[in-house]
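Researcher: Here's the sequence for the chain we discussed earlier.
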Amino acid sequence: MVDPAVRYGIDQGLELIPQIAKAKFDESVEVSLRLGVDPKQADQMVRGAISLPHGVGRTVRVIVFADGDAAKAAIEAGADVVGVDDLIEKVNGGWTDFDSAVSVRHLMAKVGRLGRVLGPRGLMPNPKSGTVVGPEEIANAVREIKAGRVEFRVEKAGIIQASVGKASMGSEKLKENILTLIKEVMRLKPSSAKGTYLRGFSISTTMGPGIRVDANEVARLATELR
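Model: Thanks. This is the structure I predict for it:
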């Protein structure tokens, strides 16, 4: 069904999703972006977060490092686990059964010790991704993540991978989610990055093959998105 030598238009690529998503569960849809950056250079690291208009189609598990009124606000906003020393100890022991971690700013001196556990998994709270915030911002951060905010970070090979929804969402919603993500990645283009920025783009489902999509078309449509 999918010709690996063809670069499909985004509409054509998304039309293939229902045909390749044949698992007995609702497969996630993921995108891979190849960027013209060198992540080894500090000024070419691309990292951020964006709330997708149609969410990601699944329950997002959020933990929060907070105390006092901020902890209470996080719980009321829907955080799955909230704590400080006890939660740090649990995560330091290897527990990572969650999708996102948020911390109030004044606790980062303690939370920073979890870099060995959370860093390699892309779960470390970071101001650039909106997961290190002030106490008054904690509730909004939790609600946004729960509603479908996606965090992304370029990997060593210049690749960004992110989930953009479920196969059952349909082409239109997936397309809008994808273009919203791409627009944000384009906005974060480092000034030191030279040449073509979005060099490759593909879509895949949990169990399906990668569908190569015309990166130039995707970049153009994303910049036109309002």
